[in-house]
């Protein structure tokens, strides 16, 4: 995920994984590749859930729930 990192760990917690699963399972999603990880080459993405007329940022929601924090540059 782009611009966010795990709150207190090297990896996202099981709670963060469960939250992403809850917000994305069966949902229409939009992903924007914002960069690539220099070590792995994997894409870093901003992810949005499109529910009806509502657009929800998965990245922002993880931060708001305390499951991630914004990356400091």
TrEMBL record:
GO CC, alphabetical: membrane; mitochondrion
GO molecular function: protein kinase A regulatory subunit binding
Domain of life: Eukaryota
InterPro entries for this protein: SNase_OB-fold_sf, Tudor_domain_containing
Protein name, UniProt field: Uncharacterized protein
Organism: Amazona collaria (yellow-billed parrot)
């Amino acid at each position: 995920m782009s611009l966010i990192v795990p709150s207190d760990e090297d990896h996202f917690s099981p709670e963060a994984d469960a939250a992403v699963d809850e917000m994305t399972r069966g949902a229409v999603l939009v992903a924007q590749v914002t960069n690539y990880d220099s070590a792995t080459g994997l894409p870093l993405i901003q992810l949005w859930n499109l529910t009806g007329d509502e657009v929800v940022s998965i990245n922002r929601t993880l931060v708001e729930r305390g499951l991630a924090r914004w990356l400091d540059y």
